[in-house]
Amino acid sequence: MGERDTSQTGEDETTRRVRVRGIYATALTQLLTDDGHAVVQASDPICRRFDADFEAAPADVRIETSRDRRGIECSGEPAAVESVAETLSDLAIDAFRWPATSRGAVFDAVVRDADGGSGAVVDLGDGERGYLPYDAVDGYVDAGDTYRVCVTEPAPPWDDDRPRVEPEVAVGGGLCTLTRGASGVTAATSGERGSELVGLTDLLSAEVPDGWGLRWERSAADADIEAMGRALEGAIDRATEIDAALAEAEAPGDEPGRVYAPNSTDWHWFGRESRISLDDARRAVETTMVGHHRTKAADRSASAAVDFVEAVCGSEARDRPGDGDFPFEAVSRQFGPVAGDRLTLGHGKPDGRCITLGTGEVTEWDPDGSITLERTMSAGGRYDGLDVPKESGDVAVTKLREGRWWYPTTYKSADDDVKGTYVNVCTPVELFPKTARYVDLYVDVVRWPDGTVTVVDEDELAAAVDDGLVSEPLADKAQNVATAVERALQ
Fold it and tell me: Using an 8 Å Cβ cutoff, are 133 and 164 in contact?
């Protein structure tokens, strides 16, 4: 994104300008400003809550909430992304960070699968895949076709989606966007202010490169001419770098690969403990119910319900401490899961992937946050850890409790004989309406039908620590949980 001048802003070189959007915006604004960063292009609600005028300046980093609301995307200058990550790493023991295909990166892509749907799967090289919408391309798309594409929407590693790519190459930082192959100057804001933004462009010293079109975004409506100039200069620097990189690269050929990637993208996944810490940060600014972020992450419709509750409570609850238990009964009755619902086990891995272990029926529900999930198993193979065969008619009975660091699954035959119990040690379980979500911590506890109890996969946990996938404090917690469960089962 290029170097920026801090001599006139009162900032030092460690200050990063961050644009924040989504359900975590208030909490992250509090945390980032406390850590010396500058939040810019703030939304109207953020300005009201903080009773402050945030600068409408170009951002070094942009933060967006993931579509499933379980975490955030953090994209921008590599050094700035790293600096923001240091702030977020102290959030809680169950906060994870994973690098991903970066927003704005340019690739030579080869179409691998163009059968049906609304887009094609493209090979970006080095094992990376992207999703190319058909309506973003002129003409028919077929397997083997090659395109030079830009990543317009990164995808989190825990999602099945692939990063969205399009042939249109664009750069921007929130205030403006330069698009390669376009021309002229436009504004996203209509009316008089939009016309004013277009007209002010002629007064700026920066000149849009040939072959690029300029669009002023809505956030520019609140910016002064100095901020507009800095934003345009930064975008021009990146556009110039792209032109140079593309000039050096050969025309798209049969081999996929990265052409240009000046920025980096991290995905941060928040567990239940992390959401509690985010609640605490938000509570320093605004009325915040217990389980604010946990509830909002559960369902989109829950956001409006949370906003209503907090608006009704208002200033009367403003200074109350955030003690008390998460209102599982009320949230679960309103949004799920309850008895009779279908629930998926979202088995997260410390490398960012999420594996679906299966879907079952909630057969028991308790207002204290406990549920029983039953799944009918298919024949074939053997149960991990237990090393007993899977047979037709087997049933897996899983006991889950909101906030617990482990959960047991007992496997029974069609005749109701117990084949064994497998206790998964994981980050605190969250019972969302459609999915029970957590991150597996490798180490587990097994109980065989004869009563023998064993802790397994400790070597896998140690390897994950060595690989930097699991922090030492989290590994210690997992080992302590496993030991406690082992004692309880003996």
Answer: yes
pLDDT greater than 90 at residue 303: no
Q: Give the C-alpha distances (Å, rounded to integers) separating 312 from 286, 401, 482.
A: 13, 30, 43
DSSP collapsed to 3 states, 454-490: EEECHHHHHHHHHCCCCCHHHHHHHHHHHHHHHHHHC
- Tokens linked to 251: 């025309």
Taking a C-beta distance cutoff of 8 angstroms, is the pair 375, 349 a contact? no
Fold of 336-489: FomD barrel-like fold (2.40.380)
- Contact by Cβ (8 Å): 168, 131: no
Q: How confident is the model at residue 251 (pLDDT cuts 50, 70, 90)?
A: confident
> What backbone torsions phi and psi does residue 399 show, to the nearest 5 degrees?
-105, 120
Average pLDDT over residues 239-245: 90
Calculate the dihedral angle through the C-alpha atoms of 320, 29, 163, 276, rounding to the nearest 10 degrees. -20
Rounded to whole angstroms, how far apart are CA atoms 105 and 150?
6
DSSP state of 145: -
Question: Which run of H or of E encompasses 332?
Answer: helix 328-335
Taking 50 as the threshold, does the pLDDT of residue 9 lie above it? no
Task: Record the tokens describing residue 20, joined without a space.
Answer: 């924040």
Answer for the pair 295, 331: CB distance below 8 angstroms, yes or no: yes
pLDDT class of 173 with cuts at 50, 70, 90: low
